[in-house]
Amino acid sequence: MGDESRKYVHAGSIEEVARLEAQAKAFEEQLESELRILDLKPRMKVLDAGCGTGAITRKIASKVFPEQACGVDIDPVFISEAKKLAANDHINNVSFDLGNIDSLAFDNGTFDLSYCRLVLMHAKNPVKTVTELKRVTKKGGIVAASDTDDGGVILFPAAPKFSAL
């Protein structure tokens, strides 16, 4: 956890918690499509690496119940808020742990699916990050990453006429 290369510029900010939750809402349709593609099923063991506030981890938990979805983030403020938000939503099959996704505290082959979203762009060495996700994923499991190229326009709430333009 002392790896300075993993610092997130907005770490430790309560304001960032609100922004991340709003971002998850704004991308909700895209996120639901991603989760459908990942074909989550009950009892799958899933890691959400770089989980931030746990917005995605909470969605994953609803799909893998009764198994527990696991979120990991390097920021103690985000982990604390993720736990509160899950409790407020009465989601009991999640765990949130403080940790560095470049050196995870899980055994080899722990998860059926290891997933990160909007994380690799912040990694000093994305190959190292993906290699670590692969390590904690079962043989035959899935490692999935969703990131952005910052070339799109995001509208929230939706503005269909503008989108058509």
Largest sheet properties: 5 strands, parallel
**CA distance, first residue to last residue:** 45 Å
Q: List how many beta strands DSSP finds.
A: 5
- Quote the average pLDDT: 87
Backbone shape: globular
Low-pLDDT stretches: 1-5
Count of alpha and pi helical runs = 6
- What is the H/E string? HHEHEHEEHEH
CATH class group: Alpha Beta
Radius of gyration: 16 Å
How much beta, percentage-wise? 15-25%
Work out the helicity level: 25-40%
Structural category: alpha/beta
Walkthrough of the structure:
This protein is α/β, with parallel strands linked by helices. The protein has a single domain (4-164), classed as Rossmann fold (3-Layer(aba) Sandwich), CATH 3.40.50. Helices cover 37% and strands 19% of the residues. The protein is built from 6 helices and 5 strands; from the N terminus they run ααβαβαββαβα. The protein has helices at 14-26, 28-37, 55-64, 76-88, 126-135, 160-164; strands at 46-49, 69-73, 94-98, 111-117, 137-146. A 5-stranded parallel β-sheet has the order 3-2-1-4-5, with helices on both faces. Helix 5 links the parallel strand 4 and strand 5. The radius of gyration is 16 Å and the shape is globular. 32% of the residues are buried.
